[in-house]
Amino acid sequence: MKHYFVAALLAVGSVAVHAADCAITVESNDAMQFDKKEIVAPKSCKTFNVQLKHVGKLPKAAMGHNWVLTKTADVQAVANDGIPAGLNAQYLKAGDARVIAHTKVIGGGETDSVAVDMSKLKAGESYTFFCSFPGHSGIMKGTFKIGS
Length: 148
Description:
By secondary structure, this protein is of the alpha/beta class. The protein has helices at residues 2-21, 60-63, 75-82; strands at residues 23-28, 38-42, 47-54, 68-71, 101-102, 111-117, 127-130, 141-147.
């Protein structure tokens, strides 16, 4: 009986550890920075959850940030095409198939999250996450990789 209890505890513990590997919190601030330059999502994850937290104080209309994932080759075009869409559309062109995942634009003290469907990503492809608020994508970006 004791062995079953230990095995059950180990199983529950491994599920919790595995789940933690499939999530990350990314902080953004009033100085147009993400606190992560690279994210590695284990390939064993079916979804990878990204929580965006704005640790600054400025409102989203002045210093809003979102977290957008695209192929690296698409970053500039997605950012440019999103500007005329405006804040209400999260600075993303409606129905843009190049956008793999994104949060909404948030301001100081706010959070939002998104679940990245890992089946949409291909090993060997180059992916970048960035903020699509006008003028931010040149600085606020990082690499998104599929780990082992």
